[in-house]
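Lab notebook page, bench 4
Experiment: in silico fold of construct C2
Operator: M.H.
Input chain length: 97 residues
Purpose: comparison with the prior construct
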Amino acid sequence: MTEVDRACEALIVEGIQSERSNDAILAEEGHGGDEPDAELRWITHPLDGTTNFSHGFPRFCVSLGIEQAGYRSYGIRRDPLPDERFPTLRGSGRVPG
């Protein structure tokens, strides 16, 4: 875990909370307020590929998912360097981003 992990997660959590204050958030570094039984739950991994990032290797991403009533329904991974997004919607395969 790096300071960048913590800072990215804090930014993501703040953004979600400012728009969706009643939703639960499961965040890798411990920010947010996880409630496993919440109706809507955000799941985030703010810097997937920390070792690559910390060594200057340009292969890392941000992962975010949504769980509705215990059912994981949506996810997105964003690779910031080539600015690529990989969204998915349960049951429909890869959704064009």
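Observations: The beta strands are 24-27, 40-48, 61-68, 71-79, 84-89. The CA atoms of residues 13 and 19 lie 10 Å apart.
Next step: discuss at group meeting.
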